[in-house]
Structure formats: structure tokens, C-alpha cells
Design a protein that fits this description.
This protein is an alpha/beta fold and 248 residues long. The chain contains ten helices and twelve strands.
């Protein structure tokens, strides 16, 4: 990874320590975990590392990190298997995939099984830091007003932005942070149509390079979870434009 070979120590130590979240960094290449750990710790994050699948799953369960940076190609247990296991256990921890797979289908598959975002190798540590900050900011409940509770569909759908929970007729929707933020963003503005680019900007920031298919994958997951709880199709496609929350 060429971008990781060029570490500027002055730049590294100049980063501010302003965060306190716990991050699990998983990659079988110790050089990669070491560099990411250094950059993240200079930003103030508490970092733990793992270099194989079983160790990563154990730490994800015992340490309960606020975010996981997860390589997909791991010995013992793949990143996909780890995500599937965590999501099946009800974990909503944000996951950013670290993947050498550039094919869009592979990225969409990772998102479909519970990842929130991805970074393709080779990457710069600064790019990873930016993604981490965006995802953690979107899942930070401490910055949400106490009154930010939505009741929709005649009270059947209740969204609590403070606790990051969504319930359909007393059935809790097990949404990832990205799926939750997409739902509440659309639900706050019923019948307003958002393009994929607008949703990507809202969810991932102005510098997002998220492809349309990525947004489609998150929408598909959100719809499936609503449907599994018994809700009608509330997130509708406006062909050629984008998506909207619509109870009609």
C-alpha cells in the first residue's frame, strides 16, 4: 500500500486529540493496522486491533467498540462472516469495510449484509479518518435534541432520534446507523423527493464518492426491515429522480 509508506511524522503528531470513541481496526496486515492505529490515536480515538477473523469477532463482542474498520479478506473467518454474525446478534455497531475488491457488486454485497460504508485499498489514512468522523457523527446521539421524536403512519411508526431507535407497532427495527439516518432524513420531510446524490451528501458528507448503487443498497435493506415488521412500502422510488417517504 504505497500511500501508507509515506508517513509524515510531523503531520501525524500535528493531528488533534478531540475524540474518545473506541474503534476496532481489523486487518491481517499488521503494517496497515499499525498506521491506522497511529493516525486514529492522534485524533483522540481509543484503538484496539485484530489480525484474524476469530479474534476480531471476539473483540467486537467483548469490547463493544463504537465503530469497526473491517478488512474483508481475513484468515479464519472472513469480514463478511463477521458482519453477518454481529448483525444476526442484533449489533448495530457501524462498520466501514476495508476492501481490495473494486467491483461495484462486491461493495454492494458488503453493504447488503450490514456495512455502513467502505474504503477501497490502497487508501490514505486521511481518507479513512474522514469516513470514521462522518459515520460517528451520524450515529452520535448526544448531539440530538431531546424532543426529536417522530410519530408517523398514525402512530404506528415511531422514530426516536435521541436513542437511535425506530419501532413499527411495537416491533423494533434493527437498523444500522446508516439505515436509521436514511429513514429519519426521509421521514422528516414526507413526500419530498431526494436524489441519490442528495442522500449521499446528507449521509456521508460533501466529499462523498458514493455510487448510486450504494444508496440503492441501503434503501433496499431499509425497505426489507420495514416490510419484515409488517409495514407497508413507506420509502418509494420516484423513477429517474430518487426516493421519498410517502404514506399514501
Amino acid at each position: 500500500m504505497d500511500s501508507l509508506d509515506k508517513i509524515n511524522e510531523k503531520e501525524l503528531w500535528g493531528l488533534k486529540r478531540v475524540n474518545s470513541a473506541k474503534i476496532l481496526v481489523v486487518d491481517d496486515e499488521k503494517k496497515i493496522t499499525g498506521v491506522l492505529q497511529a493516525y486514529l490515536e492522534r485524533e483522540g480515538y481509543f484503538v484496539i486491533t485484530a489480525h484474524d477473523g476469530p479474534e476480531a469477532l471476539r473483540l467486537a463482542r467483548s469490547e463493544k467498540p463504537d465503530l469497526i474498520l473491517l478488512d474483508l479478506m481475513l484468515p479464519g473467518l472472513s469480514g463478511e462472516e463477521i458482519m453477518q454474525q454481529l448483525r444476526s446478534e442484533g449489533s448495530r455497531v457501524p462498520v466501514i469495510m476495508l476492501t481490495a475488491k473494486s467491483a461495484l457488486e462486491e461493495k454492494v454485497y458488503g453493504l447488503s449484509i450490514g456495512a455502513d460504508d467502505y474504503v477501497v485499498k490502497p487508501f490514505s489514512p486521511q481518507e479513512v479518518i474522514a469516513r470514521v468522523k462522518t459515520i460517528l457523527r451520524r450515529s452520535d446521539t448526544d448531539q440530538v435534541p431531546l424532543t426529536d421524536i417522530l410519530s408517523l403512519s398514525g402512530g404506528k411508526l415511531k422514530i426516536n432520534a435521541l436513542s437511535h431507535t425506530a419501532v413499527w407497532e411495537q416491533i423494533k427495527l434493527n437498523l444500522t446507523p446508516t439505515e436509521f439516518n436514511m429513514l429519519i432524513h426521509l421521514a422528516r420531510h414526507p413526500n419530498r423527493v431526494y436524489s441519490r446524490a442528495q442522500l449521499a451528501e446528507s449521509l456521508f458528507g460533501y466529499e462523498s464518492i458514493t455510487e448510486d448503487r450504494t444508496i440503492d443498497a441501503h434503501i433496499k435493506n431499509l425497505r426489507q426491515k420495514l416490510q419484515n415488521a409488517g409495514a407497508p412500502n413507506l420509502v418509494k422510488t420516484v423513477y429517474g429522480v430518487g426516493y421519498k417517504y410517502d404514506e399514501d
